[in-house]
Amino acid sequence: MATAELWSKVLGALNSGEMPPEDSEPLLDADKLAFLETCRKRWSREAILSDSGGDIVMRRLNRREYANTAEALLGVRPDVTTLPDDQATSGFDTAGASLFLSSDQIEQYHATAIENLQLILLPRKRPAAKTVRIEPEEYYTPHYADAAEQMRDIGKRANAFLSQSEKPASEFGLLDEYQAKKQKVQKWLPLMEDYLSRPETQTGITLIMTISKAGTRKSNCRPSIPMQTASIA
């Protein structure tokens, strides 16, 4: 830090015209600009190192970055659910401190890479088509009910944490204050509750309302159709 402070003073003296002294040969403008640019780049690197104690934190790719990289290289979007969870720090999922890499995690990344390569390199027979029938009121309605309950729960925990200052966020099942503020208001909960309260969801399905630039809009399926049929290749 002492060296960094000294060079900071040198840059200030050059920029202000104090250096070189009047009785010395002046620097050419081109030489001065080149020197200042070199010092600026070095100073930027030193500043980054000083913030981390002189060490650059090596980190792994998070799930999103890994999926984007694999898709760019192989042309397929990989399944990254088996990779380590990304722990957000103050709302950021790319902080090196939370993206450490252990031997077990290396094996997870290796296994995921092998699966991706097999999708590309190994010949496979086209799977036979099959028909899957789903009762919407037995499948979608419980799914949305569980999602609404999770929204209520995390909203209550976020408000409980923000209403006090003694206990840490971890005791409320939250990462930090940033996450609590984001989860304090569940904007989709009223729409979900509106969906669950509709009689159509007891015998069939209704499309959830969506938010557009012009406001809230909705579309309904006919509740008289109890089943949906889909062909899956």
Topology:
Elements: H1 2-16, H2 29-51, H3 63-74, H4 103-121, E1 130-134, H5 136-162, H6 177-183, H7 189-197, H8 200-203, E2 210-212, E3 215-217, E4 228-232
Antiparallel strand pairs: 1-4, 2-3
Structural notes for this entry:
- With 233 residues, the chain is mainly alpha-helical.
- Helix content is 50%, strand content 7%.
- A hairpin with a 2-residue loop joins strand 2 and strand 3 (215-217).
- Helix 1 (2-16) packs antiparallel against helix 2 (29-51) and helix 5 (136-162) packs antiparallel against helix 7 (189-197).
Please give a quick description of this structure.
Helix content is 50%, strand content 7%. It is built from eight helices and four strands; from the N terminus they run ααααβααααβββ. The C terminus is likely disordered.
**Unreliable spans:** 214-233
Helix content: 40-55%
Structure summary, number of beta strands: 4
Provide the residue-averaged pLDDT.
Answer: 75
Largest sheet report: 2 strands, antiparallel
Overall outline: elongated
N-to-C series of helices and strands = HHHHEHHHHEEE
Order of neighbouring strands in the sheet with most strands: 1-4
What share of the residues does DSSP label as strand, in percent?
A: 5-15%
Please work out how many helical segments DSSP would assign. Answer: 8
Q: N- to C-terminal separation?
A: 63 Å
Radius of gyration: 29 Å
Top keywords for this entry?
two-stranded antiparallel ribbon; disordered C terminus; 7% strand; 8 helices; 50% helix; elongated; two-stranded antiparallel sheet; 233 residues; single chain; mainly alpha
